[in-house]
Design goal:
The protein has about 575 residues and is mainly alpha-helical. It has helices spanning about 1-60, 65-95, 100-105, 110-115, 120-135, 140-145, 150-155, 165-175, 180-190, 190-200, 205-215, 220-225, 230-240, 245-250, 250-260, 265-270, 275-285, 290-300, 315-320, 325-340, 345-355, 355-360, 370-385, 390-395, 400-410, 415-430, 430-440, 440-450, 455-470, 475-495, 505-515, 520-530, 545-565.
């Protein structure tokens, strides 16, 4: 009997507690809505009252009376700002409920908060910036902040003489806003970058300042601004002078350095003096691929500092042959590919370190990663600028390997473009030209690339063919005929109603920039056709001449293929 009574009592009490809890939760939600609504009305009332007082002072014509009204306004503002600080603190807590936060947004909470940034009460400013930071993660709120010119209002909090907590909160708010490109431009217009660089000198602000500066460094317009600040010496000092910085905040710091190095003036400042020496010293100690990328970006610019790379060429070649890190290898090869014969003795380097064998080993599609493969091709193109390298390349299997890659990687536009550029460099030298034209079917492939959808590939293929025609008269006549056949096919497609394999933009680019083959030549073809009906069949040749040229051309390449087999 006692057991049944206890069970009934505890069951009843537990059920009652659950019902009371549910009721309390519902009541709390109702209270939140009512409190939020009441406080929003109170804030709006206080803002209107403040604006009305300012208007009354502006309209007052009596100077002494206006001065008295101004003094009273200052005292009233002090009390009002304390009230507003409490109100916004309550709203900040209530806004933890997303549904209530949405209601606040509809009633213009962002506008109210932006107006508070003009006040001077520290507690009010802190809660306003915290609230704006919370709201800034939503795009709709950022739009309202733009309309209220939030950047110009925050600009005054970016000095070192401001309250530390306010500066730190402002930086975090600015970081959220910096994801918007329009607001980023506005920050740059308000001279934010020099102010951020000054704050970068203080360790307390450094993590968030590095993130902000990284965002600015992604804009081309902003990169040149860094030259006029102390940012590059500071970044270089943090890269090489503070190892702990690379361990704690390395991503933002290295990313900033990589982006800055893409600008020529920044790269010159970074590598000037002992800068390049310190970067290489740090690189050989850490073997960091991103630090190597900084050096690579610097090497792509011309300038007096470029000669300093000569001291480290042999070290880079040794590193490329020994490293097992593919990311590091890509950046090392990219750096070597950015150098020229002014900085590097390529024939001596090839003979001393066996670079031909290294190239042959890494020109294997499917075995080597495409990123490495592409950088090897770029490096070969750089090496082939040197006349003394031509016999070494001609006596190797590099030409055949490159020709094979052209067919295997025909869907990779960047790879195709770089291979055709290497062919262009090979045609310049007699030894490599003979191997390329006699032992491969490269000309057929290059002519086909005149119809490629990529404009740069078409232009590079045309330059290579023009050079071949200039250096070899026999091949030149046959190439002209084949080029005309390709262009005539496009002409006929255009007459029939369009280009089936191109969109309008690609076709337009081909006609206007692809060597001038379509628009200008169309008129020439028509004009000459009226004067000479045989012109449309092949540059003024007769039918018999055209057939003979085609036969000679095919026999020429068939003989070459037979010799190769």
């Amino acid at each position: 009997m006692l057991f049944c009574f206890c069970f009934f009592f505890f069951f009843f009490k537990q059920k009652t507690a659950y019902e009371m809890l549910r009721s309390l939760v519902g009541s709390e939600m109702c209270i939140r809505d009512r409190v939020g609504d009441m406080i929003m009305k109170m804030i709006l009332l206080e803002i209107r009252r403040h604006n009305q007082r300012k208007e009354d002072i502006a309209k007052c014509s009596d100077g002494s009376k206006a001065a008295d009204m101004q003094q009273r306004l200052i005292k009233q503002c002090a009390r009002q700002e304390q009230l507003l600080a409490v109100c916004f603190n309550v709203l900040l807590n209530v806004a933890e409920d997303v549904s209530i936060e949405k209601k606040m947004k509809k009633r213009g909470i962002c506008s109210y908060l932006c107006q508070m940034l003009d006040r001077n009460n520290l507690e009010l400013l802190l809660v306003a910036v915290v609230f704006l930071k919370k709201l800034s993660i939503f795009k709709e709120n950022i739009v309202q902040m733009k309309e209220n010119d939030v950047i110009s209002k925050l600009n005054r909090f970016m000095g070192q003489d401001q309250h530390d907590g306010l500066v730190h909160l402002t930086l975090r708010l600015m970081f959220n806003l910096s994801f918007d490109s329009e607001l980023r431009d506005t920050m740059a217009d308000h001279s934010m970058i020099p102010k951020l660089v000054e704050l970068l000198k203080l360790p307390a602000y450094r993590p968030v300042v590095l993130k902000l500066l990284y965002h600015f460094s992604t804009d081309e317009r902003c990169k040149s601004i860094f030259v006029c600040t102390d940012c590059i010496p500071l970044v270089l000092q943090m890269l090489v002078g503070y190892p702990e910085t690379l361990q704690s905040g390395s991503k933002e710091l290295l990313g900033l350095a990589v982006n800055l190095a893409t600008n020529g003036r920044n790269a010159e400042m970074m590598c000037g003096g002992e800068g390049l020496h310190m970067l290489f010293k740090r690189l050989f100690k850490t073997m960091d691929p991103i630090l190597m990328k900084v050096i690579r970006n610097c090497a792509q610019h011309d300038g007096s500092f470029k000669g300093a790379f000569k001291e480290y060429v042999q070290d880079l070649v040794i590193l490329a042959k020994q490293t097992a890190n593919p990311d590091l290898l890509v950046e090392v090869l990219g750096t070597l590919g950015n150098l020229t014969s002014n900085e590097v003795d390529f024939p001596g380097l090839i003979n001393e370190y066996g670079l031909i064998a290294f190239f042959e080993q890494h020109l294997r599609s499917g075995v080597v990663e495409d990123d490495i493969l592409l950088e090897v091709i770029v490096f070969i193109g750089t090496v082939c600028h040197d006349r003394e390298v031509a016999p070494l390349v001609a006596n190797s299997s590099l030409v055949q390997a490159l020709f094979s890659l052209l067919g295997e990687k025909q869907e990779d536009d960047e790879m195709v473009l770089q291979v055709v550029y290497v062919f262009y460099r090979l045609v310049v030298h007699p030894e490599t030209r003979h191997v390329l034209l006699q032992q491969t079917n490269a000309i057929h492939h290059i002519i086909e690339l005149l119809a490629d959808t990529n404009l740069e590939i078409r232009k590079m293929a045309d330059q290579a063919l023009e050079l071949i025609m200039e250096l070899d008269d026999d091949l030149g006549k046959q190439i002209r005929h084949r080029k005309f056949a390709v262009h005539n096919e496009k002409w006929l497609s255009l007459v029939d109603g369009g280009l089936p394999d191109y969109d309008d933009q690609q076709a337009g680019g081909y006609m206007e920039e692809g060597g001038g083959y379509m628009q200008e030549d169309q008129q020439e073809y028509i004009m000459d056709n009226e004067q000479n009906p045989g012109y449309m069949m092949g540059a003024g040749y007769s039918d018999e001449d055209n057939e003979a040229d085609v036969g000679d051309f095919d026999n020429y390449f068939m003989d070459g293929q037979d010799d190769e087999l």
